[in-house]
Amino acid sequence: MSKALLKVENLSVHYKVSGGHRKQVLKAVTDATFELHPGETLGVVGETGCGKSSLGKAILQLIPAANGRIIWQGQDLCTLSPAQMKPYRKDLQLVFQDPISSLNPRMTVGEIIGEPLRVHSPQLSSTQRSAAMAEMMERVGLLPEMARRYPNEFSGGQCQRISIARAMILNPSVIICDEPVSALDVSIQAQICNLLRALQRETGVSMVFISHDLSIIRYMCHRVLVMYLGRMMEIGAGKTFFSQPRHPYSRALIKAVPTVDFDNPSAYLDNVIEGEIPSPLNPPSGCVFRTRCAHATPQCVQTRPELEPADDGTLIACHRWRTLP
Amino acid sequence: MRTVVNCKNLNVRFRTDDSLLPAVSDLSFSLNAGECLGVVGESGSGKSQTFLAMLGLLADNGAATGSVTFHHQELLHAPRKTLDTLRGNKLAMVFQDSLSALTPTMRIGDQLAEVLVRHKGLSKAQARSKVLAMLEIVSIPDADHRYNSYPFEMSGGMRQRVMIALAMLCSPEVLIADEPTTALDVTVQAQVLRLLDGLKRHTDTSIVLITHDLAVVAGLCDRIMIMYAGRAVEFGSVRQIFENPKHPYTMGLLRSVPGMASDPDIDLPAIPGQPPNLEDLPDGCSFAARCAYAMERCTVERPELYRMNNNRQSACHLEDIS
């Protein structure tokens, strides 16, 4: 296995929430530990409240970590002040879900895409900056002539291209894509997926691709991390994950994806897991998934399963994964 | 087959500051008893506005012309009184955003009971027991307690099931579900779809499923209408559409969606370009600019819906064999 580019160790993210008159702590992410390798796409998948977006933001230090370390080039990012963090931001970029609201409506597209250069490479002349910007616009499929226009003149798909150009212009090592296609129309999603893959082939950028859509994850990612209620359930190679999911939650997720099968059109509706995701303010004892798991035993109520390695390197947090049918 | 809803030459226009926006143009289709019709299209394709127009729910700056009948009774421009006896009773709708579709200041039990008191003349006590039974059917746990909940106290999946319960209370003849699962998580989406699947199997209700998700349509619908830029571009049975799509837009849509069986090593065959601006539609086919098969004729002459064998229709000059 190639050397890790970024290491996340025992990362936890907490939010303070005030529910009525008492203050509580919401544990959005608990004990996340994984590595990101050069040139790979790591998919982070899970349902609402599983902590996937918090994880992405914490890696970039956009929200503080409660515990744990994020090791980047030998440096723990969690210990840095915002000013110390600034030079690292050049290498760690982000693409948001909502392409419209993540662009400043009062800046032209050229200003938006060129801003990272202005901040991180102030030595460049404005001509050099414009040239870099025009080149980047072409690479993401925008016409350089569009640089003087404002975001409201663009469609959602084009705005997402602008976001990607802004993230890529500093030639980062890692981009974190938080649901980058879920707000887009079906026919546009494929364009953006292809664009991200092409940029990765050209530059070798590593991606953390956060999504709730398993078919997109399957298509985009080399490895997959499944989260539920803030905890890692399973992490492993994408191909094995989709052909042989081992955690009961991973299986339930894959099973619930609507599939086209005319011999048995509603097959995916059989054995749907029941119930809903418990409140992250009050997660179940033991295994957080046990309240919806068909295989739960008293052991699952009492002790939380640790991540265990399978022969192929996949890690699974389940007491029973070895013996499940 | 008995036709329940018949839509003929429906046009929906929205007045904006400087133009008339054609949201739906010249749309004709019928809905048969007990069938499930899938309406597939992207944002701005007119799929929701078609059915909002049918129920008299267009925004103030919108106007509909043409005809939509329910058992030969005209719905467009019908008096409010007529619509009130039908809506929520014979014709029910499930909206995408369950939080804004339910009244925020009313307990959900009371919102449901109101429907039965109003349309079926039940007493409050009778309505309550029927509502509780319906909440059980849609798998709301602890229905007795949930009866007194406000919408904001429930999860999105639970609210969506409450909306389906609300729509089903009067055993409607037509249930229109507008992106009923788009805002939901996958596992909860499957629960809601299973509910609709059960409805389809066990009742005579005709279901219209409006969605952008082709896979959802495949599992549930009998027939599909594909819409693009305000027009129907293809009709066919679900199998015909998936196994032998005729319109280039349908073909592109099917190919560009990554499935759980597609090869992840190959780039997705995406449809290039983007949907046209409704304020500035081309003279010819609205899809021509993105179409790999476009001919000169496509840019000047709009293709009509050509009828083919087996009740199929496609609005593409490729089907013009005359």
The domain count of chain A comes to 2
**Coarse structural class of chain A:** alpha/beta
CA gyration radius of chain A, whole angstroms: 21 Å
Q: Which structural class is indicated by helix and strand composition of chain B?
A: alpha/beta
The quaternary state of the protein chains shown equals heterodimer
Give the N-to-C terminal Cα separation of chain B: 30 Å
Largest sheet of chain B: 8 strands, mixed
CATH architecture of the largest domain in chain A: 3-Layer(aba) Sandwich
User: What is the approximate shape of chain B?
Assistant: globular
C-alpha Rg of chain B (nearest Å): 21 Å
Mean pLDDT of chain B: 92
CATH architecture assignment of the largest domain in chain B: 3-Layer(aba) Sandwich
* Number of separate strands of chain A: 12
Count the beta strands of chain B.
12
The largest inter-chain interface, given as chain pair and residues per side, is:
A-B, 47 and 47 residues
The total count of helices of chain A amounts to 10
| CATH topology assignment of the largest domain in chain B | Rossmann fold
Low-pLDDT sequence parts of chain B: none
CATH homologous superfamily of the largest domain in chain A?
A: P-loop containing nucleotide triphosphate hydrolases
Strand order of the largest sheet of chain A: 6-7-8-3-9-10-12-11
Condensed summary:
The complex is a heterodimer of chains A (325) and B (322). Chain A has 325 residues and is α/β, with parallel strands linked by helices.
